Amino acid sequence: MTKILLLSDSQSMLNSLSERLRFENFATAEAPNINTATEMCRNDHYDVAIVDGDGKFDNIGELALPTIIIVRKAELESAVEALRKGAIDYLSAPIDMNQLLGTLRALQQDEETTPPLRLRQPSKRTNCATQPIIGHSDAIEHVRNMIRRVAPSDARVLVLGENGTGKELVARWLHLKSSRCNAPFVEVNCAAIPAELIESELFGHEKGSFTSAVKQRKGKFELADGGTLFMDEIGDMSLSAQAKVLRALQENKITRVGGDRDISVDVRVVAATNKNIRTEIERGNFREDLYHRLSVIEIDVPPLRERRDDIALLVEHFIEEICTRHNIEPKSIDSEAIEILSSRPWTGNIRELHNVVERLIILSDDHITAQEVRLYCSH
């Protein structure tokens, strides 16, 4: 049974959280302050900590636990700082229990396939569920709110946005916050697979169905049974494959290439594209009936130029993540350097920003200056 350490100086918060979590079959223990919590961690094993905010996350690394923090809306910048220091997620008060339970279940799943959570280094623990969605701009808050509302349902979602905006991350959080979070999350990039192989990739094939089919193979729909199938760049799929995907969505059944037997599947499909699907429909490149099947809910992920207020937070997060990955001490950065980065066009969006930050970390000294930004990021 997952054992949760609750940290808050509010006894009513401790009582209500403990009661609900025990109802959901989690074991709980309570601490009024960080010192008590740290001592409890020395004497007992806990799988995760939930920390009530109000600035108590300066020393969360001492807990040596995956940590979820609870913040007030005005504290979102502090929450991102906590993520940099090792927290795996944050929740705004009042607590969305579906969101909290989704994160806890994802941790339970992760624990089954990894070493005990308390043995991991805090700086590397942000990956035990998935990367956070960084930012507090209105545009990204809208995306977060859409995820919270939509994830608990089984509604199909079409995620729209330019390349590099984080569409896959949105899909992963939709899965993480859903009741399917303990089942597989399977992704397929429809643009990366040749047209003649996409049907085999999605639906599988029987042995001998074509020259290189030396054995039976399950497709992505079967592998995602019970969970979520993320179909990235679905606008690049051939019309013949679109027709078979439409049938799978209508009937919840697939047929392997070369097979004659229907196979029932229970899959939630989240699709994504950087194309204007309505334009593709007008050009005859995309089936309108499939579009309506996929787009029960649409989530538009904003380009980075529409959320410039988030760039400073993203840069700080990337510095922490990249320095950890390269096993070097985190570097500081000038406010003027941040201003220059915030003014760039970022046609490649967050992916481009991540690459630029990594380049600066590798080429700069201990402190990233505005001059180095101009020197290394001029192209």
Quick gist of this model?
The protein is α/β, with parallel strands linked by helices and 379 residues long. Helices cover 41% and strands 15% of the residues. The chain is built from 15 helices and 14 strands.
List keywords for this structure.
globular; 379 residues; 15 helices; single chain; five-stranded parallel sheet
Any chance you could write out the topology, listing elements then pairs?
Elements: E1 3-7, H1 11-23, E2 27-31, H2 34-43, E3 48-52, E4 67-71, H3 76-84, E5 87-92, H4 97-113, H5 138-150, E6 157-160, H6 167-176, E7 185-189, H7 198-203, H8 220-223, E8 228-232, H9 239-251, E9 253-254, E10 263-264, E11 268-273, H10 277-282, H11 288-294, E12 297-300, H12 311-325, E13 332-333, H13 335-343, H14 349-363, E14 367-368, H15 370-376
Parallel strand pairs: 1-2, 1-3, 3-4, 4-5, 6-11, 6-12, 7-8, 8-11, 13-14
Antiparallel strand pairs: 9-10
Helix pairs in contact: 3-12, 12-14, 13-15
Coarse morphology: globular
Give the end-to-end Cα distance, rounded to a whole number of Å: 53 Å
Average pLDDT works out at: 84
Count of distinct strands: 14
The helix-strand sequence is EHEHEEHEHHEHEHHEHEEEHHEHEHHEH
Rg estimate, integer Å:
23 Å
Helix content: 40-55%
How many helix segments?
15
**Class inferred from helices and paired strands:** alpha/beta
Summarize the main sheet: 5 strands, parallel
Fraction in beta strands: 15-25%
* Uncertain regions spanning at least 5 consecutive residues: 110-129
Strand order in space, largest sheet: 2-1-3-4-5
